[in-house]
Amino acid sequence: MVITTELQLVINASMMGAVYGLNAIGLSLAFGTMRIINIAHGALYMLGGYVAYTVLTTLGVNIIVATAIAMVIMFLMGLALENVFIERFRSEADAVAIITLALAILFEQGALLVWGGIPRGVPPLTTAVVEGFSLYVEVQRFIIFAISISLSVGLSLFLAKTKMGRAIRLVTFGEEIAKSVGINVTRISMLVFGLATALVVAAGSLSAPLSSLHPTVGWSLLLTAFIVVVIGGLESVNGTIVAGFIYALVEAFAGFYIGSQWKGIVALIMVIAVLTLRPHGLLGKPVVRF
Amino acid sequence: MKKSYLAVAIVAVVLIAAGAGAYVLLTPQAPSEPLKIGILASLTGPAALDGADLVNGHTLAAEEINNAGGVLGRKIVFVTEDAAASTDLAVSGVKKMIFDDKVFAILGVQFSGMSLAVTPIVSDNKVITILNVGSNPAVMTQVTKQYDKFKYVFGIDQVEDHIAAAMYDFMKNVVKPKSYFLVAEDLSWTHAYASALEPLMKQGGIAVAGQAFPAYQAKDYSSEVEKIKLAKPDIIIISVAPPVGYTLLKQLKADPVTSKIPIHIEWYPGSYFDEVKQLETSTPGFFNYITVQSSWHPGAALTSKTDSFVQKYQQKYSKWPGDPAASAYDATYALTEAIKKAGALDADKVVSALEKIDVQGARGRIVFTDPNYVHNARDEAGYMPHMVVQWLDGKPIYTWVQGAPNLSKGNYAKPPT
Lengths: 290, 417
Prior knowledge:
heterodimer; A: mainly alpha; 11 helices; 2 strands; globular; B: alpha/beta; seven-stranded mixed beta sheet; five-stranded parallel beta sheet; about 45% helix; elongated
């Protein structure tokens, strides 16, 4: 019975871990490439959920189609945000942090005005459950898990295998070196911010049927994203994906074996341990910038 | 010629001055300075929904009072500070209202921890404070133990061990489970009522199958769901406030084992009637058979004021009033009635008047004479009773009203197994 419980915890935590990874990956990408900390990351998660909700209720599509549409809309919004608010301050990390904090508050209050404070319920994709060997898998969670993994791995492959991806990676080594080989850093930054926005929006809208939408949902997810990124390695997309699973598993097992109150404490102990043993995160590498 | 001009000018000036003087003397006295009252509410952050509800309740009451002539000839003016669910901001907000805005009294306060932090400050400065939410035993016993210092603090909310007593009453006499599992967010008030509930339940033969206190605003409840499955309780008691409370409900409903266990909720419901309606639209039957306990549900006409309050609130804000709105509405009336009885804006006199007050509020009869917690409004049968609503097909059924079976509109229905 205990083994069944542990397996069930692994199943449920893995489903959640994929979403945690997807939620954090944009933060990692933006930090790695642009060296900015986007405090509005959580608010974009929330906004993505609401945009998908609006698409879903207006067009009568399911959450997956709504997520795809929301990703496109918010990708364009990400491009605009970068161009209007971030580009000119990109070299000043403090200024970007303050600007994105202001954007976060603006989005939160905007969501409150547009959608109101009452939490919005997003219809489940399906309520089907697959049972066997005293275990169960929610079909909906599994679909969300599969899409999250596909998006995360897709980004990883994009960065590794495509010309544009290689250009993005080169920018992480330094703007000057990238410029010297003819890369338009401004355009890359816009693209990265747009991609980061689209990915966090995907996490926000795919999670919506599992919880409920409300204007303040982003803040706790922002904290989780920071923890996941630090564990995985600040500039490592693959590390972030892995760390999402580790975080969710640690949270579930600590909650079960030690106590619910200890989940957060154990997660923070893990962060300290990782930073002590591997200061660049689990899969992060020291980067020499030029 | 010049002299006559001068004489005319002097006469004109004298006449104007006399006219002005007469105008001042003869016109009714200009309105007095407004009565400044502070509201501490979380208008941003995770408790923003309840915070808005709370401010709405105060505003509605103040409008009614002002339209009826105000308090001692003064209009009520609120100064609102946003605590954003943070104790630090609550402390700075209260200090600003006392020292900069010079408020006569403070209303609001949404968390027990916040209440503990601000009550010494308001007491030291003799600022009457009626805690709308967050009047837990640790806060209210301060008044009992150090009356002279803390006599300016009043509470108009449910006290945690009264919540526990009411829950026990409902469980023992209506649901009759053999065991329960409590999942409550890790906050001061939930620990207080969990501690009070356990001995009562044990005494009544209801075993504690387990307890879990996940963090406030947790995102995943997998470990709690697994614990419940192993514990096999007859009922799950939840005190995880919305909106994250709905995440827990969804996880419990998705699990083939826990979905068959009855759920009883005790939280401070904000506008949760509207939330249930919203969730039922997206997932019909989601709330079926769930029972929700509170000392406020808009629908049980506890007093002659209840229905009119609900009606006016809905007209003004286009939503159901939640628990914070109702208690805020009653707190505003209680304070202003006490000021009228005291006849002056003298804190000590108003404290004495509040101690003797007996008014019909929207939530019940407001009397600050709780035998165990001096200065807390009595939240029990005959005063502000606790009640239980059971949801069926998106409709609330008033299943149990403490000490007032005549107000119950249906029997508790056991969920199908």
